[in-house]
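Q: I have 114 residues here and want to know how they pack in 3D. Can you give me a structure?
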Amino acid sequence: MTASRFEVARAVADAVAALPQVARLTAGGLHGHGVEVATLIPGGRVVGVLGDADAVRVQIVAARLPLQPVIAAVTAAAAEVLRRYADDRPVEVFVADVSDEALRALIAPVPVEV
């Protein structure tokens, strides 16, 4: 299937954003270096997805912990979209942050018997 890079980026973003493990995609600087993770499209941008000849990078805010299953789910969802477009680039997932809800669940107080 022949598609523009815009179509592919939008399809990857939609698939990843639909995952319950993902709070949202984010364009924040990659590893603090100020590189925006977004695909520029006519009239806007696809936040959180940036592809080049070597890979497709997806940057998220995780909605759950631990992170390994979140990263695996994002990788699988993005790779499935790429397969539909006959695109064999690898997927690189960057977790920019973890949602407050996921952190609160992690540190929820444990009842103590007195």
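Q: Anything worth noting?
A: The longest strand covers residues 91-98. The two ends are 65 Å apart (CA to CA).
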